[in-house]
C-alpha cells in the first residue's frame, strides 16, 4: 500500500534562484517539487543554461531546504511528426538525463504534445512519433539509471489509459514510467463519477505499478464542454476514487504534486490533498 509525500510544481512559485525557490516551496509546507529549470529558475532560458554549477547549487538547496526533486520537469514535444522538430526535442531530453541523475530526481517527466500544436497530424501519427522519441531516449536512461515518465493528457498524443498501455507495451523499457494526473484523464463526456471510476480501474490494473508521481489540480467543464481551472474544492475530479486506486498500489512512497499552486492557499490545499491520503 502506497504512502504519499505532498509537493508542488516549482514554477507556480515564480522565477527565483534555486535556493530562494526551494526555500519558498518548503516554507509553504510542501516537501518535494517538480523542478522545471526553464520555467522556474532565474537566468535559465534554455536547457543549455543548466550548467554543472547550477546543478550543484540545486543539490545544496535541496539539502538546506529539505525539499527533494520528485520530478525533473523536462518539457519537450515528443509527439512532433515533423522529424527535424522531433529530433531537436529528443536532443533536449537527452541533454537532461545526466542532470536528472546528478539531482537524484525521482524521474524525468514530460507530456506527449498537445494535438493543437500540429492540427494537420492525426493522433496515430503523433503516437508513432512519440514511440520513435521514446525509443531514442530510453536506452540512454537505462544506461545512466534514470527513470523517464510520460503523462497522459486527454488532448495530447497519449490521451487514454489504452494509449498509455500501448506505449508501455511497445517500448517495454524497465525505465519507462507514468506520471498520473487524475484530472488529465477526464473530458466532458467522462466526467461522471461512474465514468471516472472505470478510468481508475483501468489505470490501476493496467499500469498502476508503473506510476512514479501524481499530479493534483482542480478543473471542471462549462455546459459547452469548455475546460476551466477551479479551486480543488470545486473540481469535478473524483479524487476519492482515484486515491482508492493509488493507495492500493505497491509503491512504498509516491509524491503528490499540487499543480497550479497559489502559495497563499498552500495550507488549505495541503489539508484538502491529505484528506485523500
UniProtKB/TrEMBL annotation:
GO terms for molecular function: isomerase activity. This is Sugar phosphate isomerases/epimerases. PANTHER family: HYDROXYPYRUVATE ISOMERASE (PTHR12110). Keywords: Isomerase. SUPFAM superfamilies: Xylose isomerase-like (SSF51658). Residues 28-249 form the Xylose isomerase-like TIM barrel domain. It holds the Pfam family AP_endonuc_2. InterPro entries: IolE/XylAMocC-like, Xyl_isomerase-like_sf, Xyl_isomerase-like_TIM-brl.
